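Q: Joint fold for the lines below.
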Amino acid sequence: MALRRQVAQWPWQGLLVIILLGLAIGLWIATKQVNYEWRWERVPQYFAYQDEELQTAPFAGTVINIGPAGDSIQVAIQSEQGGLPVTVTVETATLKVAVGAQVSEDDEIGVMERKWRVGPLTQGLWVTIWISFVSGFFGLIIGLITGLCRISKNPTLRGLSVLYIELIRGTPLLVQIFIFYFFIGTVLHLDRIVAGVGALSLFVGAYTAEIIRAGIQSIPKGQSEAARSLGMSAAETMIHIVLPQAFKRVLPPLAGQFISLIKDSSLVSVIAITDLTKSGREIITSSFATFEIWFTVALLYLVVTSVLSQLLFWLERRFARSD
Amino acid sequence: MIEVNKLIKIFEGRGQVVRAVDDVSTQVAKGEVVVIIGPSGSGKSTFLRCLNGLEEFDDGQVLIDGIDIASSKTNLNAVRREVGMVFQHFNLFPHKTVLENVTLAQRVVRKRKPAEALDKAMALLTKVGIAEKANEYPSRLSGGQQQRVAIARALAMDPKVMLFDEPTSALDPEMVGEVLDVMKQLAREGMTMAVVTHEMGFAREVAHRVLFMDAGKVLEDAPPDRFFTAPSEPRAQAFLKQVL
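A: Joint structure:
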């Protein structure tokens, strides 16, 4: 008899399905208990909606002619003061006036062109993505510099970087955002977006610095010794030999850090930056679809973080070529 | 070519003070092959690493081609260009191909044009018999092949001196020969070499002089035939009895 036995997988997979189903049913019962009425149909309009462009009379006057023009209708209006008639184009089905009708200024003639407009959820999602991206970019630069200072021989650079890292890692991000916005932002007259991005960059920079320091220190000493023995300077050794190898090693923890950053960026909504979270809160006040919107917001965060994690996974595999 | 005066290197740690290199004076003439042997922990690797400043020595003087490497006026990087080094664990750059390993320092340090660096690299890889692996990554090579690439990498800088730090100690026995052959060829071509090794056959065949080190001191400095047949120091006699 072999030590390694074949164990059937399907009972466990079945159990998994049952547990998930149980959770879903539990959720449904729970919402029934609080008499919640689901209104999922209200959600899509917050991604994108059709805007009706109302056409009104430019002045008081009389409709003198209505004639078709392609798919729509042209309405000619003659002003009471005389002068040339003005034509207004509206969609056929929405025409509100007849020939000879008297119209006063700003009276509705009809609707022209329903334009697709970006809804608040999409806008919020976009703000979240670009704030995270910009903060991540600056955070990476800050982290790289701080990480290098952290292992420098100069006590001043080392002391400053340690102080910065400890300050940031030892205080809550929410408090940092408030300090950055209400104190630094007020002193330096910073825009709220700048304050938000600044706070997030400094936050992610401190964590990135520690990751990069660990990455650099994980590269065997023999690598820099070999480079130095060839006559490369300390900087050339860092750029050509140590950092490329270190970067490859720290990619997984860096990826985790940036995924955290996307989620942490929701905290900038407290200083009235309309990111995905704040958009969600604003929509709820007008739609009353509390559960649906929060579930949608959570799903959107999940989509963004999953895409990023797939992207970094792909990058990691590309870098693994030389292993 | 190399001149060493009263070199001292002290390691301190955990309350212990180790005089790894203890008042060593010697010289290596141009074209000379000097083999340094001795029991492990005798300071021979540390001594070798002091010669290109990888180890910061505490006292004494190292002159490479007449240049004091410890002087504040000396650009150590410029000196290291002229001193090639081969390590026990090869230390090839794993994120670069074999070819890039050999061309990188030529371009960065010697500022050679890519085409020139490439020609030089291919010529050297052919010389060490590994040109067909030029586009592989080091992890795909055997230990012996990696060490030959490391030798080519050091030679690409056109060094005046080559330092070998136990180049065959990390190799499987059947790969030792291929690396030693490359080193023998270099010696025949007149390269100035300082070699720390446990390969007594290599020392006997190629060395012009053998230095025997123990406890940080050079106890014996003799041509190989005299050293291997009639060593004067009792500790050298005991060591030879162990290894031969």
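Q: Anything notable?
A: Chain B has a mean pLDDT of 93. Residues 42 and 214 of chain B are 4 Å apart (CA to CA).
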